[in-house]
Amino acid sequence: MKEKLTLMIPGPTPVPERVLKALSKHPIGHRSREFQDIVKSTTELLKWLHQTKGDVLTITGSGTAAMEAGIINTLSKGDKVICGENGKFGERWVKVAKAYGLEVITVKANWGEPLDPENFKNLLNDHQDIRAVIITHSETSTGVINDLEKISSYVKHHKNAITIADCVTSIGACEVKMDDWGVDVIASGSQKGYMMPPGLSFVAMSEKAWQANIRSDLPKFYLDLISYKKTVDKDSNPFTPGVNLYFALEEALIMMKEEGLESIFMRHQRHMKATQEAMKSIGLNLFAKNGFGSPSITSIMPEGIDAEKIRKTVKEDFDILLAGGQDNLKGKIFRIGHLGFINDRDIITAIASIEATLNKLGKSKYPIGTGVAIATKILNERSN
Predict the structure, then answer these.
(1) Residue 335 marked in a binding site
(2) What is the pLDDT of residue 127?
(3) What's the confidence (pLDDT) of residue 384?
(4) Distance separating alpha carbons of residues 134 and 69, to the nearest angstrom
(5) How far is 231 from 250, CA to CA, in rounded Å?
(6) Considering the domain boundaries, does residue 168 fall inside one?
(7) 344 partner at 20 to 30 Å CA-CA among 71, 131, 246, 271?
(8) Which residue segment(s) compose the domain that 69 sits in?
(9) Low-confidence spans in the chain with pLDDT less than 50
C-alpha cells in the first residue's frame, strides 16, 4: 500500500492534524482585525519559543530568506565577519556573505565534527574590527550540533561583533536561550520544529542587532526588517503574508505551549538517544562526532554498502523517507530525522524498517530486532 508516506527527514517534517485543519480554513483579509489578532498572538508565542523579550519577525519565505535578512540588515559592505563552516549550510552563509561584499574569515571543521569555540575566541581577540560571527547551530547536512552558547559568550565580550545564528533545525528541538546566551540574530523556518509546511521564516533581533541595523548599508527591500518591525508593532505585516500559514503557525505554537519547552526538548533528546544507540547496536556507524549529535537528525555512515541503496529500499518497501548525504557525502551517509511532530512509534518504525532492509540486502550483522530492543528500552526510561 502506498500513499502513506512517513517523513523521517529534517524538513519538511510531519504536520499534526490540528495544524492541517487550521491551514485549511478559508482565508481572511490580511488587513482585518481578525488577522491582526493572529499576528499579535503568534508574535507573543514566538517570543516564548525563542526565550526572548526582543522582536521576532515573521517573513513569508524560507529559512534562507531569514538568514539573508539577518545578515543584510545588520552589516555593511566591506565589513569583516567570521563564518563557521562544518557542513552544507555553513558553506551557504559564506556564499551569502561574499555575495554582499563582506570580508569573510572562515572557521572550518571537518564534516561530522563540531566547530571549535576557541578558534572564534582567538580570532575575536585578534580582530577588533570583526562585525559579526555567523554560525549554524544544528548543521543539518551532517547531524552535528555546534556550541552556540559558548561561541556567543565570546562574541558578547567583543566591542563590535554580533552573533547571527542559523537555528533552523534547533529552534523547537533544543535549548536556544536567545537573551541568556546573548545571541543577537536568530533565523528559523516553519517546516522544521514548528511542525508546519514550508513557507514562513522567522528572524529574532536583539537590541544590539537593531543598533547594528542603524549603520547597515546593504541593499534590501522585501527583506528590510525595519518594515517588519514597524508593522509588527501594529500587529500587521508590510506585505501580503501567507495568511493560511499564519493559521497553521498559531495552532502549532499553541500545541508547543501545551507540551512545554522542557518536555519538547526532553522528547527530542530521547529520540536522538534511542536512534543513535539503536544504529550502533546493529553495527552502523554514527557520522557525527560522539557527544555532538543533533537532537534533530542522526547521520549514519554504513560500511560496505551504498547509503542510497538503504534509503531507496526503505522508501520502496516501507514508504518511509530518510534523508541522504549531500555533496561529497552522497551515497556515503543517510540521515534519520526526528524533528518536530515525531513520536516513539515513528522512531521504532524507522529503526525496524532499517533492520529489515539490511536483512533483505544481506548486510545484517545482528539478529533482526536488536536495534528495536535497544530503542524500546531507552524510550521506556521516561516512565521509570
Answers:
(1) yes
(2) 95
(3) 47
(4) 13
(5) 18
(6) yes
(7) 246
(8) 17-258
(9) 384
